[in-house]
Design goal:
By secondary structure, the chain is mainly alpha-helical. The protein is about 65% helix and about 0% strand. The chain is globular.
Amino acid sequence: MEPRLTNPAGLLPDVGQAVNILYKSAHTAGVPGSVLELVHLRASQINGCGPCVDHGARAMRKAGETDDRLFAVAVWRETPYFTEPERAALALAEYATRLADRPDAVPDAIWDEAAKHFSEKELAAIVLWIATTNFFNRLNVTTRQQAPANY
């Protein structure tokens, strides 16, 4: 499958600066980088974003993530590899990514579980990073961007 056009974020010069600000905001709020990477990877898997899944998994491996955890992100509920805070963040990522799947898009129980593990500032960063990931997923999937072929 060929891309429909060059990545829109690269064609519009102000987008890069805006994304850098979003990235910096999410990654300087005190949330462990591994949690942000997990929610990025899970949302990208749900949305079928090849470039983001590829990049996310490679970045996590480069940061020292184990294959057991990487291979299990899509089935995190059925594995022992994730901490309670990570599980809460993964659940939040799934619900915030699948907003139209249920009348109460992000139920109180999902939010409350995440709030047990993260401060308001950290929750804001996680939600911002989930939204940013979904933004990139939608750009990439709509324009049929591909994961790089040469690594």
